[in-house]
Amino acid sequence: MERADWDRRYRGTELVWTAQPNRFVVEELQGLPPGRALDLGSGEGRNAVWLAERGWQVTAVDFSPVALDKARRLAQARGVTVDWVLADLRGYRPEPGAYHLVLVAYLHLSPLERVAVLAGAVGALAPGGTLLVIGHDLANLTQGVGGPQDPAVLYTPEAIVAELDGLTVHRAERVRRPVDTAPEPGVAVDTLVRATRD
Length: 198
Hints:
Layout (H helix, E strand, L loop, with lengths): L2 H9 L11 H7 L6 E5 L5 H8 L3 E6 L2 H14 L4 E4 L12 E7 L5 H14 E12 L3 H4 L13 H6 L4 E13 L6 E12 L1
Parallel strand pairs: 1-2, 1-4, 2-3, 4-5
Antiparallel strand pairs: 5-7, 6-7
């Protein structure tokens, strides 16, 4: 989906998802000492705000001004500061070696675009920094609910790991996530990859 599509989707409801952070973001990152964090494809800001509440200095990037307006309101309501950046990740170049954490959550692009974004994410990590990538898995088409229906933009753990040159991978697997949204509750299948720069 392009910027206009996401703007329409974000305008259609108060929050498309929830103000609470993604469960895997919490599970994987809650024990990390805060530093500089980069949230690529931040949407309505739920993960960026959660990180900021835990002392992270967060830069959050998204191409939807509607989403970022909602994110700013959420941050203000929670009493935290986030550096919100309006940019299309397909052309955005993060500061090299500057971040202790880079988060890429549910960013679904064409394979070539994803390779470029992940290369930028890897390059943005400081020594010892953590990269967390979460997204709808290819298996979700047949075993899960929701998410994009185009197989070309879906993840597999193997594909994501292959795109993380120079990192040490600590976790790469399919994970299941309860989904309680309409039309009826179910389970989604995601790819989760956590890696660090040595």
